[in-house]
Amino acid sequence: MCNTIIINNGEVEIETPQEFVDYFHQEPVKDEMYSSVVMHACLCQIDVEESLKQLQLPYEYDGMDYNVKVCDKANTSVASI
After folding, report:
1. Which of 10, 13, 46, 47 could be a cystine partner for 28, CB 3.0 to 4.6 Å?
2. pTM summary value
3. Which is higher by pLDDT, 80 or 29?
4. 8-26 tens-digit pLDDT
């Protein structure tokens, strides 16, 4: 089963690389196992942890979802979880 990035307790659910770009305005990090990223497919093809680290966003991973708390989407400043 694929991962989902949950923003602000379900305010936004990111399930594809294109949704990641649309929300964060940055390309996600491609997982080493894939030669390319299909933008409208699942997040399995990206390295979600590294992508969130590059954005300097703290997150909690529950085995399936990455839960991220974002205060202000415009500048992606983050509150503590």
Report:
1. 46
2. 0.84
3. 29
4. 999 999 999 999 999 999 9
- 64-77 exposure pattern, b = at least 16 Cβ within 10 A, e = fewer: ebbbbbbeeeeebe
The amino acid at residue 70 is V
DSSP classification of residue 16: S
Longest dimension (CA), the chain: 35
Burial 29-63 (b: 16+ CB within 10 A, else e): bbeeeeeebeeeeebebbbbeebbeebebebeeee
DSSP assignments along 18-65, one per residue = HHHHHHHSSPPPBPTT-SS--TTS-GGGB-HHHHHHHTT--EEE-SSE
